[in-house]
Amino acid sequence: MSDMQSASSPTRPVRFGWFLAIAGAVAWLASVTLTLERLALYNDPGHVTSCDINPWVSCGAVMQEWQAALFGFPNPFIGVVGFAVVVTIGITLVAGARLPRWYWIGLQIGMTLGFAFIVWLWSQALYSIHILCLYCMVVWAMMIPLFVMTTARNIAAGVFGGGPRLRAAAAEWGWVVAAGLVVLCAASVLISFSGVFFG
């Protein structure tokens, strides 16, 4: 029995479906909150967002930067649509659907683009804007494992080919890689804002 078929494998279809649904829902809620805050700012430029904590942790301040609307509209709009799709796919898998290979390739492309966008936003927040957005960081924390585990699932399932060892390694080590990247992201935030957090 392969790792993909093992009941304990995190990339097993139903378990993976629950993961997509839950992580996608958390990121979707954060995106919706950011969208509502952005709309409130449009209506009232003096609006104080719910995560305006200080000059260094402020969603409102980040929203005033050009990076917050890279494509001409608020970035959270992308999350509202994209994560809704992720949740839908997750629920579909939980319900027992068997998706074709092209569908998984499409999901992988979407996850890869989303991850690349998140990496860019992370770099801008830490090294250009120098302001953190709490809801944005929630999205980062969900997008990292979503990308890693989707990639691990697709490798383990043979979507991209590869031998048995590679597939087994992907199924076994996906969570380790995802957790490691989340820890590195958190560490980068602590280091970049060490003066704020530690005085």
UniProtKB/TrEMBL annotation:
Transmembrane segments: 16-36, 76-95, 102-123, 129-152, 173-198
UniProt subcellular location: Membrane
InterPro entries cross-referenced by the UniProt entry: VKOR (IPR012932), VKOR_Actinobacteria (IPR041714), VKOR_sf (IPR038354)
Record flagged with keyword Repressor: no
Domain spans labelled Vitamin K epoxide reductase: 13-154
Family to which this protein belongs: Belongs to the VKOR family.
Protein name per the record: Vitamin K epoxide reductase domain-containing protein
UniProt organism field: Zhihengliuella alba
